[in-house]
Design goal:
By secondary structure, the protein is α+β, with helices and mostly antiparallel strands. The protein has a single domain, classed as Phage minor tail protein U (Alpha-Beta Plaits, 2-Layer Sandwich). Helix content is about 20%, strand content about 35%. It is built from two helices and five strands, in the order αβββαββ. Strand 2 and strand 3 form a beta hairpin. The chain is elongated and about 55 Å long. The termini are close together. About 25% of the residues are buried.
């Protein structure tokens, strides 16, 4: 049986973030969602815009004799290419931040995998310096373990 942590991360990749599509009311259609980090130079153009579930950090607190509360922070990296060259890259990044946030906020229980979802921090690249823009979004999910299974 997969842990709640592993189940949540797969749900984010396969359901929540994969749903981002212009036909569903978003600004972009995501080309790729994966665990791990793309190297910028190796990122195929066909994968853009792309989202990487880059890093996780978790704090746990005992709740009962055999349960704990997990506070899982997930860093999402979003890569988007400007259609107009260097000018306008940050406008595209801001639209992609909007799309990712909207997808996360559609269901704060994430299909009943968590008790709480909170977007904690958004960091973007420095500006219109390249035609590829990047954002890093830190999201916290809180869940309760089931028995001794994390």
């Amino acid at each position: 049986m997969a842990s709640k942590r592993a189940t949540l991360l797969a749900y984010l990749r396969d359901t929540v973030l994969a749903q981002i599509a212009t036909g569903s009311g978003y600004n972009f259609t995501v080309g790729s969602v994966k665990r791990g980090v793309y190297e910028i130079d190796a990122l195929p153009q066909s994968a853009l815009p792309a989202i990487c579930i880059a890093r996780t950090m978790e704090d746990r607190s005992n709740l009962t004799g055999n349960q704990f509360i997990g506070r899982l922070e997930v860093v999402l990296l979003g890569y988007v290419k400007s259609a107009t060259g260097v000018t306008g890259t940050m406008d595209e990044v801001e639209k992609f931040v909007e799309d990712i946030t909207k997808a996360l906020e559609q269901d704060r229980l994430q299909g009943d995998h968590v008790k709480w979802t909170e977007v904690k921090r958004v960091v973007t690249s420095d500006g219109d310096t390249d035609d590829l823009g990047v954002c890093a979004i830190t999201v916290e999910f809180q869940y309760v373990s089931e028995g001794v299974s994390p």
